[in-house]
Design goal:
The chain is α+β, with helices and mostly antiparallel strands. It is 19% helix and 24% strand. Strands 18, 19, 20, 21, 22, 23, 24, 25, 26, 27, 28 and 30 form a twelve-stranded mixed beta sheet that branches.
Length: 801
């Protein structure tokens, strides 16, 4: 066990300040009698010198006489990119100066509890100076800020972690709270056991948590280690979501757990936040990490906080507020209870919570993509992951949004990649069609044993997940049951990496059971044949639908500059509705995971949307991937900006309209990234690319529609709706322009759809989930009947078009 930090009060500020000022006076008098002057501003001290010099010129610090600074003793703790200071006077500011260049690197005002925390420090030797706000008055000496170098491997052997509640020590001495659950009925001496680590800022290490993972995984023979990231729960340090130091802490956790005699191999587990943290930790490449399974994750931080350049003041804001609040001092009830019960380490670990950044304010103050946000986005670093990876997620995920497939082709160093993609919701990796291959993955790459799902395991897992889905769901039989480990591993490794589950819920309404599936060798599917439909003002009769025009097929479209003339033909006009930004499709978000989600998907008023419908299809279409709405628009009243939402839906033979997917765009942020494609026009969202709309200007606005998968059967139709962002997702809302804007849609607009060629789909497809038999026709694969209105999981349906 590790000793608790001292909880003594720091020296009284007035006494410490008096000592500093007296020392400064004495040093000044001594310098006046000396013929040798100290170093001047911007001058680094000679190599090897003990003289701290002075801090560089800055407007906030006034140079007076260059004199040696008095020494002061402070408690300094260096970590990657950070310096923690204790026992300082709250009347002062701490300044870090590079001893080689003489430049100031960071500063922080001392908080009332006598602490300061300097962030974003480079690897360097720094001088720690104490300033009164105008000049440096003392030096606390030098300290080395380390880089990302890992400690010696044998340094992890000294730590002891056992069943129950623990603290795991990181390379910089920070203690992370952890809870260990061993396989059911076993003690440490019965090991070693395959081990899974869950790591996040929620409350994974809460000893009293009621967590299905603590029931299911140990019954499957796995030890489960659940760890709070720094600055959360009872873990020490200061919290900053997805900061790089959390990766290094995760590295230390993996190596510490792997060093325990009761652990035979270490993988990672977790949905959502702990899923995202798996990607961060794996990118740090801890040598003992065997495999990861990130579930319901993101590709890019901005995709959730600023989809299409609009602030997500629904889930994006509420999640950020939640994790920030939970990371406050005693922000999680269980940590407060441990402190009250005498946990001195947990109490001391709250010390630096006062330095937690306000992440909501930071997000609002930085509405653009930056180097920092990109560095914290999995898209930028998953190419550094070198372990087998299983990833799963839903197109219509109500929390993370469904944009995660953008990272699938970036796992270039992972020796094995398996992905499960489907219509549905955030919790659905626990659905039978994804859970079974996930358990196979863990058995093969973490436990290194032949997969075996016994009737008892089936019963336990079904019962453990029933609370999410409203009823127990039987697991399908594993295709690897009864095989040797080597044979099962060979089959698994030779299978196509991408599995798409189609029409989840069609056979069992709103439950996570797929009607059929197909497996592909790559994402995006390379054989896709984009189908482009032109937006036209030609009326198209449709049951119960109020429409502005139609979607007409066309041949290959060459990109062209938008028409410059002010009289380019307008095919539809609508007015944005600011109230729609706050609207969601979940009347009660707490029930949407169950069989009766209670969707509320209203149809916008005629003057508040432009809607276009295709002719009835003559043959079935299988759509799988991103889509792009390529619009020509004008703002007739001269506004410089407008917020747009584009939604794709399908219309069945009975006039029922089913939601497929949406995309969003603030017009001034329409500039595209260099890697934008015909089907995925991602915006750059950088401050330098902002382009307000000029009066009478016609602009080309390409709206990226998130990926989806759908089958449109003969006689059915597609609908494209353009309106105000909002009323399209269960938990996302949008900070739209508070004033209505008139938007004109011009001739030349079109939408590109991701069509899987019939031959490609036939080769990739298996028939109904139960049989898994090969298919001989498209009808055999997809079935002749459309899903009932409202049965598809995560996809609202409304009657009458």
């Amino acid at each position: 066990m590790y000793p608790a930090f001292s909880d003594q009060e720091p020296a009284r500020p007035s006494a410490r300040r008096l000592v500093l000022l007296l020392a400064l006076v004495m040093a000044t008098l001594g310098a006046a009698c000396s013929s040798t002057a100290g170093p001047t501003f911007d001058q680094a001290p000679p190599a090897g010198s003990d003289d701290p010099g002075t801090i560089p010129r800055r407007p906030s610090l006034t140079a007076t006489t260059a004199v040696p600074l008095p020494r002061i003793s402070l408690a300094l703790e260096a970590a990657f990119g950070q310096l923690s200071i204790r026992d300082a006077d709250p009347d002062f500011t701490i300044v870090a100066r590079d001893v080689v260049t003489g430049k100031e690197l960071a500063r922080d005002r001392v908080e009332p509890n006598g602490t300061a925390l300097l962030r974003t420090l480079p690897k360097a030797t720094i001088e720690v100076l104490v300033s009164d706000g105008t000049a440096a008055v003392a030096s606390a000496g030098t300290i080395v800020i380390p880089g990302q170098e890992a400690p010696p491997q044998d340094s992890y052997d000294e730590a002891e972690v056992g069943a129950g509640y623990n603290y795991i020590k990181t390379r910089d001495g920070t203690l992370l709270s952890a809870y260990v659950t061993l396989p059911a009925g076993n003690t440490e001496s019965d090991g070693p056991f395959p081990t899974l680590v869950e790591y996040s800022g929620y409350e994974p290490s809460n000893p009293d948590a009621v967590d299905p993972a603590r029931l299911i995984l140990p019954l499957l023979g796995y030890a489960l280690v659940q760890v709070n990231v720094r600055g959360t729960g009872c873990s020490g340090g200061s919290f900053d979501a997805f900061a790089e130091i959390e990766r290094l802490d995760g590295y230390d956790v993996i190596e510490t757990v792997a060093a325990q005699e009761w652990s035979s191999g270490v993988g990672m587990w977790g949905i959502s936040y702990p899923g995202i943290m798996q990607l961060h930790v794996a990118a740090a490449q801890p040598p003992s990490l065997a495999a990861i399974a990130p579930l319901s994750v993101i590709a890019n931080v901005d995709d959730v906080l600023y989809p299409g350049g609009l602030f997500n003041n629904g889930f994006g804001q509420s999640w950020t507020q939640r994790v920030t609040g939970n990371a406050g001092s005693e922000g999680q009830r269980w940590s407060s209870e441990r402190i009250d019960a005498g946990d001195a380490i947990c109490a001391a670990n709250q010390t630096f919570r006062i330095h937690n950044p306000d992440l909501v304010t930071a997000a609002l103050n930085e509405p653009f993509s930056t180097n920092l946000s990109r560095s914290r986005s999995p898209e930028s670093f998953v190419d550094q992951i070198e372990v087998p990876t299983f990833i799963a997620g839903a197109w219509q995920d109500e929390q993370t949004g469904g944009g995660f497939p953008a990272i699938l082709d970036n796992f270039t160093a992972a020796p094995v990649l398996r992905a499960s993609l489907y219509n549905g919701l955030h919790i659905d990796p626990l659905g039978p069609d994804t859970l079974v291959p996930l358990l196979e993955f863990y058995d093969l790459f973490v436990a290194r044993r032949a997969p075996s799902l016994t009737p008892l395991v089936n019963l336990v897992v079904s019962a453990g997940t029933a609370s999410f889905f409203g009823q127990p769901l039987e697991l399908p039989e594993s295709r690897l049951t009864g095989l040797s480990y080597d044979d099962a591993l060979a089959i698994y490794q030779n299978a196509p990496p991408i599995t798409v589950l189609y029409e989840v819920g069609a056979e069992a309404p709103n439950l996570p059971l797929a009607r059929f599936q197909a497996s592909y060798g790559q994402w995006p599917i390379p054989q896709l044949e984009p189908l482009r439909l032109t937006l036209s003002d030609t009326p198209m009769a449709s049951p119960g639908a109020s429409l502005d025009g139609s979607l007409l097929p066309q041949g290959d479209v060459q990109e062209a500059d938008p028409p410059a003339q002010a009289d380019a033909r307008i095919i539809a006009t609508f007015h944005t509705d600011p109230a729609e930004g706050a609207m969601t499709t979940a009347a009660n978000p707490s029930i949407i995971w169950g069989p009766n989600p209670g969707w509320d998907w209203p149809l916008a008023r005629d003057d508040r949307a432009a809607r276009f419908v295709s002719a009835p299809l003559e043959k079935a279409l299988v759509l799988t991937g991103n889509a792009s709405a390529d619009l020509l628009v004008r703002l007739p009243d001269g506004e410089p900006d407008a917020d747009l939402e584009v939604t794709l839906s399908s219309l069945d033979l009975d006039g029922n309209e089913t939601y497929l997917q949406s995309g969003w765009l603030r017009l001034s942020r329409r500039a595209l990234r260099s890697d934008a494609t015909e089907l995925n026009p991602q915006i750059s969202n950088t401050a330098s690319d902002i382009r307000p709309v000029a009066r009478s200007e016609t602009v080309r606005a390409r709206v990226a529609i998130l990926p989806f998968a759908a089958v449109i059967r003969p006689g059915e139709q597609l609908i494209l709706t353009i309106d105000t962002p909002g009323a399209s997702k269960p938990e996302w809302a949008f900070a739209v322009d508070p004033d209505p804007v008139t938007v004109a849609v011009l001739a030349g607009s079109s939408v590109a759809l991701p069509v899987v060629p019939e031959s490609t789909f036939m080769a990739a497809s298996s028939a109904a989930r139960v049989t898994g038999s090969p298919v001989e026709s498209l009808t055999d694969a997809i079935g002749a009947d459309s899903p009932r209105c409202g049965s598809l999981r995560g996809q609202p349906c409304r009657s009458g078009g």
